[in-house]
Amino acid sequence: MPALVGIATVVSFGLDQRQCEVALRLAARDRSSILFGMNPFHALALGAVGAILVGSALVAIYVPSRRAADVDPAPTLRDDG
Fold this sequence. Notes:
The chain is mainly alpha-helical. The protein is built from 5 helices and no strands.
């Protein structure tokens, strides 16, 4: 009996950890209903989504790196010592 409780606890813990993944998989399965008659593998739609993702990733990389490049290292190094 304690072994069954232990197994149930481990399975429950694993499902709790993967709850977000399960939700995403369910949402992706229902994505075709969002596209209103369009094939989910339509090349233009996939290309647009890819371009949006790449563009947002580039902005997410550029903004913090630009801010870091504007920092003057001399005052920062003087204050560290």
